[in-house]
Specification:
With about 210 residues, this protein is mainly α. The protein folds into two domains: about 100 residues, Endonuclease Iii, domain 2 (Orthogonal Bundle), CATH 1.10.1670; about 100 residues, Endonuclease III, domain 1. Helix content is about 55%, strand content about 0%. It contains eleven helices and no strands. The longest helix is centred in the middle third of the chain and has 16 residues. It is elongated, with a radius of gyration of 18 Å. The structure holds iron/sulfur cluster (SF4).
Length: about 210
């Protein structure tokens, strides 16, 4: 079979994923913007299901940035422990809450560089925050996205920054937010880390299968 261009591959990938997962969306609960941002912080190396459960308890006790900023590290750590990486996530939640209650004047910045000043917030979470809260075009490259994009042949890299750039080159800007969610759906349903189900996968007709 002749090799197809990455642009063509992206077009086919988009069409197949949209058809397979028409209701694709972020799987973190989104009630208030600051809560979504904090769930993003808690999601590092943790399932979205666990984050949604744990954050429910956190927000019952500390419903907004002011109350979180006033809470002690120990109080926050005791609640978010099930999400793992407790010390670094506690520091990150506190730093985020302090900035939101203080220098940001209650409004989350629609600015990736400003968000990345928060302890523990990297490009992935900053992209998630601006994308989900403001609809700012941004690609969230998580472990699923990184894996499936390399297997399909959209990128040759496993470096999230390079994967993000490769995706941005071949998908139109208005698809950047959705392609992150669709990659997660694909990774969970078919393109699993250990045993990809290529036989049933909706991308099997054109995927590069770089496994
Ligand atoms: S065909 Fe296989 S390798 Fe390609 S995306 Fe589907 S499950 Fe993954």
């Amino acid at each position: 079979m002749a090799r197809i261009s990455r642009s063509k591959l992206a077009e086919q990938t988009w069409n197949a994923l949209k058809q397979a997962f028409p209701d694709s969306a972020c799987s973190l609960d989104f009630d208030l913007p600051e809560r979504l941002a904090i769930r993003g912080i808690l999601s590092a190396q943790c399932t979205d299901k666990r984050v949604n459960l744990t954050s429910k308890e956190l927000f019952e006790k500390y419903p907004d940035a002011n109350s979180l900023a006033d809470a002690s590290d120990e109080e926050i750590a005791a609640i978010i422990k099930p999400c793992g990486l407790t010390a670094s996530k506690t520091a990150s939640v506190k730093d985020f809450a302090n900035r939101l209650a203080g220098e940001w004047g209650g409004k989350i910045p629609n600015d990736i560089d400003e968000l990345m000043k928060v302890r523990g917030i990297g490009r992935k979470i900053a992209n998630l925050i601006v994308g989900e809260i403001y609809g700012t075009p941004a690609v969230v490259v998580d472990t699923h996205c990184k894996r499936v994009m390399k297997r399909i042949g959209i990128t040759d890299s496993e470096d999230p920054a390079k994967v993000e750039k490769d995706i941005m080159k071949v998908f139109d800007e208005d698809k950047w937010i959705a392609i992150g969610h669709l990659s997660v759906d694909l990774g969970r349903a078919y393109c699993k880390a250990q045993s990809p189900d290529c036989g049933s996968c909706p991308l099997s007709g054109f995927c590069g299968r770089k496994i």
